[in-house]
């Protein structure tokens, strides 16, 4: 599996900051940064809360339910590993808890995806270090 | 205090946008554009005491290349909005008396990227928000994917059609046929051609997307007092407005709304005009859908009504409401951050009455969105 995976893997800009996220996905959990001071859920992870500047931050486990906020059917993926006859879906999923997260939609044809489609999280073990968060049609 | 009327564009220069200039560099193209603008203004480089670039072209390097030693220099680093922002900063600088006459210049050489070992036109995957959260899911390099997301959402919320957006691309191409500096000069297309072009990030198609190009542009801004003694009929900056948006599209609350909502309102307030006073518009158009949303947010068209507007309106330089009269970036080409600058240059060119065969009929008041 590890050697076969040729798509881009996550390259963190601060691997200390996002380690809990990637450890959680390996356990099959989707967690989102949470501000203990002002109760804001936000994504992507930051070193200070984007709402109140607090550094008292934690993580909250999400239900894994959400809907497709918008998507594009990527026909010309410049990264060669994403090149396939019918392209792929790149979506922004809005979690039921609020935050939006970029992801892929698995388990259906690109043509079946629509805005507002209900989805639930699935986990894709791509390497020993990384498990991606993907979504599938409910 | 306001900047209303405090800056006068007295000279413009543009190195024609082309797919590639073999054996040229960004600095060389910028210097050529600077020379054209200085000549157009009828001044010498010794009259230049201010310099504003996009930040990709470093001000010290431009100053050294041109052998000028300005009293004010900065690079704005505002991505696509660099041209408009640089014009705003230059106006502020002459208005405040920091300097008198500013050269604004930016350009692009795709060979520079190759020389540096990077493939031209590909966003490098240095560690970033993008590399961690987006690229693993197949976000294409460059900006295509994000605009595909916005386009899909605009269709969902407002019923906009791909055919309506294709009309924008076709109208702009018509304009480019009268612009020898446009990369697609001499290559007519119609709505059908746009609709038949292949999907890049569906619903976004090839002919709704910019092509990376080489080129450069420059303008000279001075005080209105100095402009009176110069040879050109100047284009006065009557109002400016800026609103900083997000770096990553998916961080927006609303994918169908742009910062132009606020920036245009501020600019019009300063100028003392309303959207209905505007005679023609030069709007940033890396993709049809972005210009479409910005035209709505500017108040030129009601929110969600951009599709029907394009269906009903001739937006060519001959039309009822001309938009992107030089072809815009879609048909003019995108020479790096000078792509966004072309909207400022063309707006000034029309106001100055220098647009030749594509001169618009009413050319007193232009709204430029960078
Ligand atoms: Zn907070």
TrEMBL record, chain A:
Q: Which residues form the ChsH2 rubredoxin-like zinc ribbon domain?
A: 22-57
Organism for this UniProt entry: marine metagenome
Mind telling me what this protein is named? DUF35 domain-containing protein
Q: For the ChsH2 C-terminal OB-fold domain, which residue ranges apply?
A: 59-124
* Cited PANTHER family: BLR3430 PROTEIN (PTHR34075:SF5)
From TrEMBL, chain B:
What residue ranges are annotated as transmembrane? none
Pfam families assigned:
Thiolase_C_1
Residue numbers spanned by region Disordered: 110-139
Annotated Thiolase C-terminal domain residues: 246-370
Positions with biased composition (Low complexity):
118-128
One Gene Ontology MF term: acyltransferase activity, transferring groups other than amino-acyl groups
What the entry lists under InterPro entries is as follows: Thiolase, Thiolase-like, Thiolase_C_2
Designated name of the protein: Thiolase C-terminal domain-containing protein
